[in-house]
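Ligand-bound model needed. magnesium ion.
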Amino acid sequence: MADGLTTGSLDCLYTGSVWAEGPLWVPSSQTVRWSDIPNNRILEFNPATGATREYAVGVEFTNGRTLDTDGSVVQCSHGRRRVERDRDGTVTGLVDSFQGHRLNSPNDVVIARDTSIWFTDPPYGILPGTKEGHEGEQEYGGCHVFRFEPASGTLTAVVTDLVHPNGLAFSPDESDLYVADTAGPGYGVPLRIATYSVRDGYCGPRTGTLELEDGDAADGLRVDVEGRIWTSAGPSVRIYSPSFQLLGTIAVPETVSNLCFGGPDGQDLYITATTSLYRIRTTTTDAATRVPSV
Ligand code: MG
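Prediction:
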């Protein structure tokens, strides 16, 4: 297990999703919000009551989400092929095209301290037969990681050498960006997490790569205040040092998609895993946690 990094046991809090992903602790409601993508709905778990409710339905296949500094939630929509903002239930689009071509199906998103929005754009919501969006074409011909400046509307491709970029997170000082690539051997590449140095809003060349065994895909990931990487990896969560030394493993009964830190003190790790939401107590918090300014 994860010696010194977790305490107590893994608890199952909810079962009933088809594919759960995109968890986020929402401070204003003290709840965990996540996507049940094939069921096209967003769920919320309230730890104070132990109850889970449908936050919204018919949501055009949302996936990953993050908290903005104003307390609103920025989320990815496969169905609308865009990144959008949910402010108290009112949803508005932020960005949906690159150089005149529609995005694929934005998957996961983080916000940097300079307020730029960084997101991944693999094709999972537009593939033939998809149950997580609507079939469609890859219009710009790739699957990039993008940086979007809301103030100027500028969209920049910052990582273009991965096949299916998926989860992403910054190191605590935002000098490195970690990006999971879930394409795998079927596309001639290993399942992996790649590291890029970040400067002035751009990524330099890849500086590190963690290769994972087939079946242990890293999808969503987070970084804690000590710089450790907490990543989904098949039916487990693994914790790595910034240089990818394995520090611990949390076994989970189902395939893990994503995770987030939350709870009143930020030390509860919430894990979305196929049909269920799980929680385990940790000794750390997310490096990216910010107190909303309003
Ligand atoms: Mg994902």
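The mean pLDDT is 96.
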